[in-house]
C-alpha cells in the first residue's frame, strides 16, 4: 500500500490522506482533516475500492458554492499526485 498526504487549496479541509494499492490503480482509503465531516467521511467510504481513474473522471472539476474547486475536486488532485509520486519512486 502507498500512502500520500496532500494539502488542499481553496477549501475547508486542511489535509487529505490517500492510501492506494501497491500498483497505484485502486483507492484503498481516503481521509480528510477539516471540512464537512459527515460528507467527507461519506466520500471516503464511496471511493474506497474504486479505480483512481474512475474517481478522477467523475469528480474532477466539482465545485463548492462560489468556489472554483471543492474537497472532492481537491481529492482528485491528491489522487493524481499520489499516482505520480508512486510512479516516480518506482523509476528511482
From TrEMBL:
Pfam families assigned to the protein according to its UniProt record, in alphabetical order: TSCPD
UniProt-recorded Gene Ontology molecular function terms: nucleotide binding; ribonucleoside-diphosphate reductase activity, thioredoxin disulfide as acceptor
Biological-process GO terms, alphabetical: DNA biosynthetic process
Organism from which the protein derives: Olsenella porci
EC number(s) given by UniProt: 1.17.4.1
Top EC class, one word: oxidoreductase
The keyword Protein transport is assigned to this record: no
Reaction(s) catalysed (UniProt annotation): a 2'-deoxyribonucleoside 5'-diphosphate + [thioredoxin]-disulfide + H2O = a ribonucleoside 5'-diphosphate + [thioredoxin]-dithiol
Family: Belongs to the ribonucleoside diphosphate reductase class-2 family.
Keywords carried by this UniProt record: DNA synthesis, Nucleotide-binding
Domain TSCPD, first and last residues per copy: 6-82
Highest rank taxon of the organism: Bacteria
Keyword Nucleotide-binding among record annotations: yes
Protein name per its UniProtKB record: ribonucleoside-diphosphate reductase
Amino acid at each position: 500500500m502507498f500512502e500520500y498526504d496532500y494539502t488542499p487549496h481553496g477549501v475547508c479541509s486542511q489535509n487529505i490522506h490517500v492510501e492506494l494499492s501497491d500498483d497505484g490503480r485502486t483507492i484503498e482509503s481516503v481521509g480528510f482533516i477539516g471540512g464537512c465531516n459527515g460528507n467527507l467521511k461519506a466520500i471516503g467510504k464511496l471511493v474506497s475500492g474504486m479505480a483512481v481513474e474512475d474517481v478522477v473522471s467523475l469528480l474532477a472539476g466539482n465545485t463548492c458554492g462560489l468556489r472554483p474547486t471543492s474537497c472532492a475536486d481537491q481529492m482528485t488532485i491528491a489522487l493524481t499526485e499520489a499516482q505520480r509520486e508512486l510512479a516516480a519512486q518506482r523509476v528511482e
